[in-house]
Amino acid sequence: MTKPTIYHIPVCPFSQRVEILLELKGLRDQINFVTVDISKPRDPELLKKSRGTTALPIMELETGEVIKESLVILRYVEERFADRPVAQTDAYKRSVERFLITRQGEFAMTGYKFVMNRDRSKTDELREAHLAEYRWLNNELQHFAPDGPFVFDDFGLVECVYTSMFMRFWFLEYYEGFTLPDTPDYARVAAWRSACMAHPAAQQVSHDEIVKLYYDYAIGCGNGALPEGRSKSSFTFDPDWRTRPMPPRDKYDRIASDAELGLV
Ligand SMILES: N[C@@H](CCC(=O)N[C@@H](CS)C(=O)NCC(=O)O)C(=O)O
Predict the structure, then answer these.
(1) 69 lines ligand 1 (CB under 6 A)
(2) Domain locations along the chain
(3) Cα 46 to ligand 1 centre (Å)
(4) Tell me, which fold does domain 209-264 have in CATH?
(5) Residue 40: left if φ>0, alpha if ψ -120 to 50, beta else—which one?
(6) What tens digit of pLDDT does each residue of 41-68 get?
């Protein structure tokens, strides 16, 4: 192997973080990306590399060492290809960056829980939990970067971490009708989110791709699990998402068939 390899699931937000960072550094060709079909049993060779865990991405170095966890991989890439820094170099600014990144897990989790829910009695509570994360971001952005649009002068490490999640959450707009309220509580984070998603370095995925692939998440089946009555996961490579129709939005009422989703 002449360069590091990242094993990832297509449209995985965690690996898109690294793709964005490489794009910003102009180094996309420095890492080999290998896609793993999540709808098939995991290759034992890959499980050996990850020492038994199934979460991706993982990055294998030329030396055979394996790095796990997207934020750790992100930092490794930043430090290994240090010529064009994307992270802040000043110690205080780095602390701001790290502080804002500390919340990415809760942000992601509230969005995924919300989309995967099919119990109408829980919808309002899950929406509110997700909105609370946006309010946290709004307050902190107002404090650290009131003028924006980015946290510092340009799209940086914090933006690498959050942008891929903002894009995944297109599935909340589509399946839950979720939008940010048009009030001052969300104005700063809404502007940040728009600037992040519009950035040229972050265009690896599209809205329709996310909505089609994540249909199974919207009916409560994550990580390639097969929904009842279906023979193919919405994450399948074949047929390609471009040839499939937009999925139905009535996730609370029923599970669409393979044929309706264009999977067979
Ligand atoms: N904390 C991990 C999360 C990675 C993760 O959840 N990846 C998903 C794909 S988007 C995955 O691998 N799911 C399959 C599995 O966990 O078996 C990271 O930041 O790298």
Answers:
(1) yes
(2) 5-80, 91-202, 209-264
(3) 14
(4) Glutaredoxin (3.40.30)
(5) beta
(6) 889 999 999 999 999 999 999 999 999 9
